[in-house]
Amino acid sequence: MNRITVELSALAFQALVTALLALVYYALWRNRRRVYDATWAAAWAAYAARIAFISAFIVTRNELWLFLHQVGTGITSILLLYAALLFSRDARWPLRRFVWLGAAVITSSLVLVYGIHDSMISGIFSVALLSAVTLWTGYVFWKCRAREQSGGATLLAVSFTLWGIHHLDYPLLRPLGSGVLFGVYADVLFIAATAIGALFLVLDHDRRALESRSTQLEQLTRLLLTAQEDERRRIARELHDEAGQILTAVKIDLDLSGQRDSSELVGKAIAQVRDLSNLLRPTVLDDLGLLPAVRALVEDFAMRTRIPAELDAPADLHHVTPEQQVAIYRIVQEALTNVARHAGASRVRVGLQGDRDGVRIEIADNGRGAVDGAAPNLGLLGMRERVSALGGTLETGSHDGGGFRIIACIPAAAS
């Protein structure tokens, strides 16, 4: 196998690797629709094309292929730099800039290939352009690294910087094609390094975007829960103060006028309004505190459902903020509601424990337990959001004695 055949095989391998890389970025663009993914795909496709063009020139010595190689080099340089700027700064170029740059690339290629007719000068110009833009791209990623402290940005910055320096060895080591094998393998190494660095940087960006989105959703959930409690408090107060007083006045008038049957109906309406008001926002929680409210909630549950309910709680819970009191009450309320609706239990136990580290809530029943593969209901999701908003944890599932158990741990509020 002669030297030209070996060199062409090496160049074909490099073109294949680069083309596959272009396909990877094209797939990323199809999936994510990010402009820099499409730009990277176009840059690597142009890089693969320029390798094909120089291979054709080596075989045919036709200046058309050398001209196309020069144009491909310029386009590759522009696209690589533009992709870096897009990714690190989101700096988009207007269309007219691409037109001027493309015109400059084509004009310079025409002059070098068809005006000067010196392949060595053309090669040096091509190398100088590609090296300068590659080093500039490395500089862009060094600035990106200083701003974001990303491992992907570091790998890209180092790879593009070394690759830019490596491009300068073409005039020294590869006059008339000598040293092609070394150059090809070095280029493939740098291509692989930049590909890995770009993928890491993309994943890092997506991770930070996901973390930011999660933080925003947590804040929104916290605001929604607060707004929900405020609305419940307002509606409960209006029911108790407005509707309750009006119905009480009507009942007194009916009692005075001797309309006992109508008075009893109004009395039932008053009781329903009182129950609804307590469900929305129990006055005992605001008037007497958390433990009396939970105790009343458990007793009312046992009376309404005929399911024996036990409360195991200390005499007092210290260092519990009003926001935590509401969350604990709602967790117990929702858990007991789930027991009544879904558990099929004959008894339930509610336990509260508190110390300087926080509060632990446990609600366990002897019902059917957790159903494998069942999606969590809205009540469990609401409990999880309440606990998460306070920095706590929530565990659910079956326990050793059978039945379902919920354990919520809420840390003490920072003083």
Topology:
Blueprint: H1 3-32, H2 35-60, H3 63-89, H4 95-116, H5 119-148, H6 151-167, H7 170-173, H8 180-257, H9 260-280, H10 283-287, H11 290-305, E1 309-312, H12 322-343, E2 348-355, E3 358-365, H13 378-389, E4 393-398, E5 404-411
Parallel strand pairs: 1-2
Antiparallel strand pairs: 2-3, 3-5, 4-5
Helix pairs in contact: 1-2, 1-8, 2-3, 3-4, 3-5, 4-5, 5-6, 6-8, 8-9, 8-13, 11-12, 12-13
Index terms:
415 residues; alpha+beta; Rhopdopsin 7-helix transmembrane proteins; 2 domains; 5 strands; 75% helix
Give a quick precis of the structure.
This protein is α+β, with helices and mostly antiparallel strands and 415 residues long.
Kindly report how far apart the N and C termini lie: 79 Å
CATH architecture of the largest domain: Up-down Bundle
Q: How helical, in percent, are the residues?
A: over 70%
Spatial extent as radius of gyration: 36 Å
- Uncertain ranges: none
Let me know the largest β-sheet.
5 strands, mixed
What is the mean predicted local confidence, pLDDT? 78
In what order do the strands lie side by side in the largest sheet?
Answer: 1-2-3-5-4
CATH topology of the largest domain: Rhopdopsin 7-helix transmembrane proteins
By helix and strand content, what is the structural category?
Answer: alpha+beta
CATH C-level name of the largest domain: Mainly Alpha
What multimeric state do the chains show? single chain
The SSE string, one letter per element, is: HHHHHHHHHHHEHEEHEE
Number of helices: 13
How many structural domains?
2
Shape: elongated
Total beta strand runs: 5
Proportion of strand residues: 5-15%
